[in-house]
């Protein structure tokens, strides 16, 4: 098992992402010192959201977690890795990287998620536990997750909000709205105040896309993606 260690945010320019996001017109910064969190309505247009939903519906599979905890109902959504060769996916991916100022090689493939009625993702963090059983599998090469950017693609009829436990803030799904937060604190350590809950959908479906950024270059980009 790996020992806890400080994350080098400067390697990927992720140490500058908060300042960069704060300067974006129309963005809102969450009023908390517990994490760096930003909300940007209308990041994606409705047509792009609808097209991404079509792609998610085509390719979903059961969602998984890195370190199984014995709770079969912990994450009940479905997920898919969106095809990075798809022109729409490529354009959205580039837009997310441009927003953060993090170079393309430091990003995971863009993932889509779908939640049916009753499905949820119980309280969790997006960073990997350095003492977890699968740390080496997921982090030996690309390192820790630095930032998360999530975009709501639709508005379910009821439920499906994202709740951050440390702040008590509940973010409601709005078509095209982006939610961004840092998984690593200013001290280079994982920030436990990013614990969040993808709450149950009560009526309809919820669709989102999620982009995770890494401490070091992600191997999938080599020979596949250009900035």
From TrEMBL:
Q: Name one GO molecular function term.
A: iron ion binding
Swiss-Prot/TrEMBL cofactor(s): L-ascorbate
Repeat: present as a keyword of the record? no
Q: PROSITE patterns, from UniProt?
A: FE2OG_OXY
Q: Which SMART domains match?
A: P4Hc
- The protein's superkingdom reads Bacteria
User: Sorted alphabetically, which keywords does the UniProt record give?
Assistant: Dioxygenase, Iron, Metal-binding, Oxidoreductase, Vitamin C
Fetch the InterPro entries from UniProt: Oxoglu/Fe-dep_dioxygenase_dom (IPR005123), P4HA-like (IPR045054), Pro_4_hyd_alph (IPR006620), Pro_4_hyd_alph_FE2OG_OXY (IPR044862)
Fe2OG dioxygenase domain: which residues? 105-215
* Name assigned to this protein: Prolyl 4-hydroxylase
């Amino acid at each position: 098992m790996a020992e806890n260690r400080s994350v080098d945010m400067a390697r990927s320019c992720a140490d500058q992402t908060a300042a960069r996001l704060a300067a974006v017109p129309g963005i809102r910064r969450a009023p908390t010192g517990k994490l760096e969190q930003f909300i940007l309505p209308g990041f994606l247009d409705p047509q792009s959201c609808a097209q991404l939903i079509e792609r998610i519906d085509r390719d979903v599979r059961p969602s998984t977690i890195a370190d199984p905890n014995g709770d079969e109902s912990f994450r009940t959504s479905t997920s898919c890795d969106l095809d990075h060769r798809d022109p729409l996916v490529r354009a959205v991916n580039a837009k997310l990287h441009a927003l953060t100022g993090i170079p393309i090689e430091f990003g995971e493939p863009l993932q889509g998620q779908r939640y049916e009625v009753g499905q949820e993702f119980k309280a969790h963090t997006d960073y990997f536990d350095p003492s977890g059983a699968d740390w080496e599998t997921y982090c030996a090469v690309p390192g820790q997750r630095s930032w998360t950017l999530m975009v709501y693609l639709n508005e379910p009829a009821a439920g499906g909000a994202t709740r951050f436990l440390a702040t008590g803030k509940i973010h409601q799904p709005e078509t095209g709205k982006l939610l961004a937060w840092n998984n690593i604190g200013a001290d280079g350590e994982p920030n436990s105040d990013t614990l969040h809950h993808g709450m149950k959908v009560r009526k309809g479906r919820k669709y989102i896309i999620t982009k995770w950024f890494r401490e070091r270059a992600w191997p999938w980009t080599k020979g596949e993606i250009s900035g």
